[in-house]
């Protein structure tokens, strides 16, 4: 049975769409290159859970770039699969940063991190408040519904000071020179200066997560 011109046209359009769909499916992922889009650490840093692919954000509460990146990062993190372990590590490059890193671990110790995270960011970046002493931060905590004395007690605790020291050492191991930075599986560092800005950072992180996932599958991990 011969096709009418109209049916022939429909068949041609259908075949063309199928070809385009196949071409789209076979389109390779973006090729990100070391040295341009990310850096390979000379010595891999051990991850906290070897059974998962780790992504760590190195940040500072007083950093405007970290502040602007945070909403996008939090949204991205919520959509990560189960095999990815995402967490934050405060940078401690100088005394002020170390103070705020210690405050971060104090918030976590008191289980008020979710409550204090955004207000503390706002206070330092948006409001430009000079929270540069434990007492000033304790007053800030009290003004946001926390307990001033509990904060100071936890701030000076061995556990919090130990976690802060570990964060400082971790930042050195990552060899980062600025924040925000993403560290993927203890092997790769993504700086905020990469092409594409913040969105580019997350695209590269997705690429490296997939790369590590593929490598683990080959080795049976």
Written account of the structure:
The chain is α+β, with helices and mostly antiparallel strands and 221 residues long. Helix content is 55%, strand content 11%. It has eight helices and five strands, in the order H-E-E-H-E-H-H-H-H-H-E-E-H. Strands 1-5-4-2-3 form a five-stranded mixed sheet, with helices on both faces. The protein is globular and about 50 Å long. The relative contact order is 0.17.
Number of strands: 5
SSE string: HEEHEHHHHHEEH
Oligomer: single chain
Strand order of the largest sheet: 1-5-4-2-3
Report how far the terminal alpha carbons are from each other.
Answer: 57 Å
Radius of gyration: 23 Å
Q: Approximately what portion of the residues adopt beta-strand conformation?
A: 5-15%
Return the structural class.
Answer: alpha+beta
**What general outline do the C-alpha atoms trace?**
globular
Overall residue-averaged pLDDT value:
90
**Sheet of most strands:** 5 strands, mixed
Number of helices: 8
Q: Uncertain runs with pLDDT below 50, 5 residues or more?
A: 6-28
Proportion of helical residues: 55-70%
């Amino acid at each position: 049975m011969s096709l009418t011109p109209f049916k022939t046209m429909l068949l041609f359009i259908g075949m063309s769409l199928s070809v385009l769909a196949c071409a789209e499916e076979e389109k390779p992922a973006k090729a990100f290159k070391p040295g341009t889009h990310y850096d390979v650490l000379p010595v891999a840093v051990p991850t906290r859970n070897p059974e998962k692919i780790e992504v760590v954000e190195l940040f500072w509460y007083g950093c405007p770039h970290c502040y602007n990146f945070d909403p996008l990062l939090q949204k991205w993190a919520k959509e990560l699969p189960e095999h990815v372990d995402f967490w934050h590590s405060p940078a401690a490059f100088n005394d002020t940063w170390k103070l705020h890193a210690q405050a971060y671990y104090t918030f976590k110790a008191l289980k008020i991190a979710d409550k204090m995270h955004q207000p503390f960011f706002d206070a330092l970046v948006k409001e430009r408040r000079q929270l540069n002493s434990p007492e000033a931060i304790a007053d800030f905590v009290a003004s946001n519904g926390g307990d001033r004395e509990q904060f100071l007690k936890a701030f000076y605790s061995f556990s919090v000071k130990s976690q802060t020291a570990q964060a400082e050492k971790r930042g050195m191991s990552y060899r980062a020179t600025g924040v925000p930075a993403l560290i993927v599986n203890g092997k790769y560092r993504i700086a905020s200066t990469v092409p594409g800005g913040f969105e580019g950072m997350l695209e590269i992180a997705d690429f490296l997560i997939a790369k590590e996932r593929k490598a683990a599958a080959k080795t049976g991990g």
